[in-house]
Design goal:
Radius of gyration: 13 Å
Oligomer: single chain
CATH topology: Rossmann fold
Strand content: 25-35%
Helix content: 10-25%
Number of strands: 4
Strand order of the largest sheet: 1-2-4-3
CATH architecture: 3-Layer(aba) Sandwich
Distance between the termini: 40 Å
Length: about 100
């Protein structure tokens, strides 16, 4: 999956938008904490994973993403079908977990 992976070493602090494509739970568990540290307070992280019907081997589901994301201070705000292969879940930092006050 190297052709679709984010170059995390180039990810800047206070990024306002990041979209990652994840096929394995262990990859999600490794990368999502890094994104939590780098994303701007009001930024968005979209996590996409292969649908079960796509035939792409995966152990990632919407529930798995939530199980990893919620303890990190994220909240899911949208879910969508990207195409016949990929679904996406939009994550944001919970207001009470943001470093700066939200007006």
């Amino acid at each position: 999956m190297a052709d679709r992976s984010v170059q995390f070493h180039r990810l800047r602090s206070d990024s306002i938008f990041v979209h990652v494509f994840i096929e394995e739970c262990r990859e999600l568990e490794r990368r999502l904490p890094v994104l939590r540290e780098k994303i701007a307070d009001a930024g968005t992280v979209w996590v996409s994973w292969p649908k079960r019907s796509s035939g792409v081997p995966t152990d990632v589901t919407e529930d798995v993403i939530r199980a990893v994301a919620l303890p990190l201070g994220f909240v899911d705000v949208k879910v969508c079908a990207i195409d016949e292969t990929w679904s996406g879940l939009k994550l944001m930092v919970r207001r009470e977990n943001r470093k700066r006050a939200v007006k």
